[in-house]
Known about the structure:
Sulfite Oxidase, Chain A, domain 2; globular; single chain
Amino acid sequence: MFDSFKQKYDRTPTGQEDRVPPGQYVTEKFPVLHYGSVPQYADLDATWDLRVWGELEDSASLSFAEFRALPTIQITTDIHCVTRWSKLDTRWEGVQFREFLKHIPALKPAAQFVIAHCDQGFTANVPLEVLLDDEAMLAYKFDGEELTPEHGFPLRLLTPRKYFWKSAKWLRGLEFLSYDKLGFWERYGYNNNADPWKEERYAE
């Protein structure tokens, strides 16, 4: 069944097959996938902040204005969803995670993992070393425009080297831990490592 579906929708450009992990097909669309309703924000300046805590020298929070004043980067990268679509050459803008660390209290030596806490009760766990990658960021623009609510407005995590559920939408907090702790989808059977090139879709 999947073979016929893939044959119908596969648009992998010739010569770019090495950019598409096993079992994936390329789409030009940007599918919307989430569980539950989409958060709505009436007044970001008054109601929104981004908190950090855990294995840090202190906890802190940044207001919407403070976060948006941080230095930004733009990247072009490929993304891969566990539901088997891949989208090539996606353009993002936001704060590189390594840069973000310069603007919060210092990490303690024990910090090895990060839990992204999001509105609607979602969490995603990512090793700190993954977030130190050049392309890992806190993203708020896609293709030159502010993220739409369905794609995570006003802020999402972006970890392109993992399946896309690790790029958690509606980000509100980052918890730094000395140990790994399963996130929302991992507790429901998704693979904790989530490497698209190894097809780590679901837990054994």
